[in-house]
Amino acid sequence: MSDIQKLLIAVGAILIAIGFLWPLIDRFGLGRLPGDIVIERENLHLYFPLTTMILISIVISVLIWLFRR
Fold it and tell me: What pLDDT was estimated at residue 44?
């Protein structure tokens, strides 16, 4: 198996895990933080979790930094 195939399988597995864990993540308030952009109109519902993405990015960066030490 090539490296790109392994990467795509890993990304897919991570997305599936996040999908299953989403109710638990929702209990902690992630996805509803101040700074998350929500636009609701008659025929449109747009949700852009800006603050949540920044927070998750920081946590992942710190974890990667800790494991590489």
Answer: 92
